[in-house]
Automatic annotation (TrEMBL):
It comes from the Bacteria. This is Demethylmenaquinone methyltransferase. One of its GO terms (biological process) is methylation. Pathway: Quinol/quinone metabolism; menaquinone biosynthesis; menaquinol from 1,4-dihydroxy-2-naphthoate: step 2/2. S-adenosyl-L-methionine binds at residues 92, 113, 141-142. Signal peptide: none annotated. Its EC number is 2.1.1.163. Keywords: Menaquinone biosynthesis, Methyltransferase, S-adenosyl-L-methionine, Transferase. Methyltransferase required for the conversion of demethylmenaquinol (DMKH2) to menaquinol (MKH2). The keyword Metal-binding does not apply. CDD domains: AdoMet_MTases. It catalyses: a 2-demethylmenaquinol + S-adenosyl-L-methionine = a menaquinol + S-adenosyl-L-homocysteine + H(+). Belongs to the class I-like SAM-binding methyltransferase superfamily. MenG/UbiE family.
Amino acid sequence: MDHKQPTLVKGVSEIPAQAILDISEKMEREEMTKQNQSKEQFVHQVFENIAPKYDFMNSLLSFRRHKAWRKFTMKKLNVQPGEKAMDVCCGTGDWTISLGQAVGSKGEVIGLDFSQNMLDIGEEKRKKEGNLEHVQYIHGNAMDLPSKDHSFNYATIGFALRNVPDIKKVLSEMKRVVKPGGMVVSLELSKPIFAPFKWVYYAYFNYILPLLGKLFANRYEQYSWLPESLKSFPDSRELARIFEEVGLERVETYLFFGGIAALHIGYKKDEEV
Ligand SMILES: C[S@@+](CC[C@H](N)C(=O)[O-])C[C@H]1O[C@@H](n2cnc3c(N)ncnc32)[C@H](O)[C@@H]1O
């Protein structure tokens, strides 16, 4: 056989260049895994800590706008009785509960999160709301959803895509668990488009918001991480492209309040089984 000899790097002639490349790729992968793990651990610890204050702080910091955005989103989804949904990174379960109410007792909703403290609050809310026996919370990781392929009509993720170590992996997982024709939906903070508004918003986000976090929840570090998490997050156009890259089609984007939040909806191909 005519095997091409691997190129040798000068000075380390006994090690083939391919082996060096393999080692450096392996080290890069290990480094990324380490970074992902530490981001995951950090995010996990943040939500375990702020769980009791999460709902209050959410309303305070968004001036209750998140409620209107959630309402708009539910209208767009037009969820029907008897359908099935998975709410990934469900936190204290606001969206999970809305989905549960929309699908009714013949439907099924799973809320998944890796923070037990957030889930516990969600469970209290579920019981208080009543008639939501078809809603179930499970402890799990968005990077590896514990559900079979093609199980749900909707996979939703609210204000959490920013927090996960690998956006593509999570969206692919969400796509995997929805049925052909089903929807993958993200409601998330985004980057404003209009310049003067952008500066005001960033000033609020970078300086005032962490102070409010300190004042009302006694957690400066956790809330100063919020602006950090948005900096590295794709803007609404890039996120729409990522939706397409993972194979979702007919991607729709809706911007809220000058683009400080965005709703993305993508559909799994009909023939994908
Ligand atoms: C900002 S909260 C959003 C909660 C809820 N979806 C909402 O709309 O209010 C983000 C949630 O994502 C969860 N989370 C972050 N990364 C996760 C992961 N890799 N797997 C599961 N849950 C995760 C956190 O524990 C937290 O409850």
